[in-house]
Design brief:
Layout lengths: L1 H8 L6 H28 L3 E3 L1 H14 L4 H13 L10 H4 L1 H16 L2 H7 L7 H7 L3 H16 L1 H24 L21 E2 L8 H6 L13 E2 H11 L3 E3 L7 E2 L8 H33 L2 H6 L3 H6 L7 H13 L1 H18 L5 H17 L3 H10 L2 E2 L3
Parallel strand pairs: 2-3
Antiparallel strand pairs: 1-4, 5-6
């Protein structure tokens, strides 16, 4: 009888909430292993981990996902390099949200077999004996061992727990982050892709919810950007850092401004290059939105239709707009002069820091000219922004 009970309930029978607790701890540990080790440490080199921590994450991922570090890092690096193009391994823009959301794991497996991707984007990932002979060579062995452990500990319930563990990363990482994270949500930064922050509280999938922040500053170990955003992965990194087991190399730069600074100089240029996405976010908030608000106040019923969802067209990165959106934007700018002015100034400002072949003097002259002409437009919000632009200084 005891043998039958052990087979049914394992060596560690628990109440129902006990099984849920164990399952939640295990799946969250897997998510943290993906976001901290695979994503921030291996794919982007945003932090370094103590060998003990690094190998624990490798071992846990072998047990719970069977994923190989080199394959995951290579595919993710290619995603950033080829984002939203046909070569992007999992772009919902190129492949469709339905395809990425429901078949994200299949897309990952297909790309993992592409040796060209592994050779081109897999540099610097672990290549020791354990990686070659165990984790990479016998990736299926880990998940099989996990099922045996679950059955021994929890009996029949352990099989169901194992099934959830195996589905966790394919659904949330491959489906939700790669799919929904490029389709639905809000944007803090107008990066040259369709990335979105799914929700501002990155508590459930390790901070990966803050996907737009990550694409804007890919090499940052911290994904949260606003004071009200939460990145649980960063909280764990800070804990590891406190006890000497991790070290963050880079984080999203915090803009510095000196109110007493009233002129354009080389420090201004350096700061704008470093803060360019934050500067454009401020331009949206302090210039475009106020001007759009004034146009809406003055608009007739006919004109109001043209202003429907105008904000997204005005602030969206030009390179990711669809043909129909380009037509709507052109029609909008043709009918509203003030919007046309602030939009053109936005493009001209972006063009300044995109001039990779221009000399420092040419860039300084262009920026000074931009400020002078902005002041001459008579648009108060644009004038105030021009004045604030001169206050920027590089981060310490």
């Amino acid at each position: 009888m005891s043998t039958i009970l052990t087979a049914l309930f394992g060596f560690c029978p628990l109440p129902w909430w006990g099984y849920l607790t164990v399952l939640m701890v295990c799946t969250q540990l897997t998510i943290l292993s993906v976001t901290i080790y695979l994503h921030r440490c291996q794919a982007h080199r945003a932090l370094s981990l103590h060998p003990i921590v690094s190998h624990f994450f490798r071992f846990w991922l072998w047990l719970t996902t069977g994923m190989v570090t080199k394959a995951w890092a290579s595919i993710h690096r290619k995603h950033h390099a080829k984002v939203e193009t046909d070569e992007d391994p999992h772009s919902p823009v190129a492949k469709g949200i339905k395809k990425v959301f429901f078949e994200g794991a299949e897309l990952y497996k297909a790309e993992a077999k592409n040796q060209e991707t592994l050779l081109r984007y897999g540099e610097g990932t672990p290549d020791d004996w354990v990686e070659r002979q165990v984790y990479a060579r016998h990736s299926a062995l880990g998940v099989s061992l996990m099922m045996v452990i679950n059955i021994l500990l929890f009996g029949v319930v352990g099989v169901a727990m194992w099934a959830v563990q195996m589905a966790w990363i394919p659904f949330f990482a491959a489906g939700v982050v790669n799919g929904v994270g490029h389709y639905w949500g809000y944007r803090n930064y107008e990066s040259k892709d369709a990335s979105r922050n799914i929700v501002p509280w990155g508590l459930f999938i390790g901070g990966e919810e803050l996907h737009n922040n990550h694409h804007a500053y890919a090499t940052s170990a911290k994904f949260s950007s606003k004071w009200w955003e939460i990145d649980i992965g960063w909280a764990v990194i800070r804990l590891l850092q406190f006890i000497g087991l991790a070290k963050a190399k880079r984080v999203i730069p915090a803009p510095r401004m000196l109110p007493s600074k009233t002129h354009i100089d080389t420090d201004t240029l350096k700061a704008l290059v470093s803060y360019r996405l934050q500067v454009m976010a401020r331009y949206t908030r302090d210039v475009m939105v106020p001007v759009l608000r004034e146009e809406k106040k003055r608009a007739s019923k006919t004109s109001a239709k043209l202003l429907y969802r105008a904000r997204a067209l005005l602030v969206r990165e030009d390179s990711i707009l669809k043909a129909a959106q380009h037509l709507r934007l052109a029609h909008l700018l043709e009918n509203f002069q003030s919007l046309r002015v602030v939009y053109q100034f936005k493009l001209r400002l972006q063009d300044i820091w995109n001039r990779t072949t221009a000399s420092q003097k040419e860039l300084l002259d262009a920026l000074q000219e931009w400020c002078q002409q902005a002041d001459a437009t008579g648009i108060e919000s644009l004038h105030q922004f021009s004045r604030q632009l001169k206050m920027y200084v590089p981060a310490i």
